[in-house]
Amino acid sequence: MADAALKEEIRTCETCQKQFLIIPQEQEFYKKKDLPWPANCPECRQKRRLALRNERKLYKRKCDKCQKDIISTYAPDSKYIVYCQECFWQNIG
After folding, report:
1. What is the count of structural domains for the chain?
2. Is 27 helix (H, G, I), strand (E, B) or coil?
C-alpha cells in the first residue's frame, strides 16, 4: 500500500519542458527499488528507449529445410539456418 504521506507531484521534463505527474504509486515503486525519480516525462523516456533499439528489417527468403517462402529478420545471404514455423517445431520436438 502506498505511503499516506506521498502526494502527487508535478515535475518539469528536462528534455521537452512539459509538466508531468508522478503519482503516489509510482513514488512508492521508485522508493522500493531505490531509484531516483524520473527527470523526463513518460513520452520522452519512451522516445529514448526506442532510440536505443536496433532497427528491424524484414527479408523474404526460403525455409532452409522445406524451401517454403517465409519472412525473416535474417537476410537470405546470412550464415544462419532459418526454418519456417512448422520445420522449427519439427526440428526441436
Report:
1. 2
2. helix
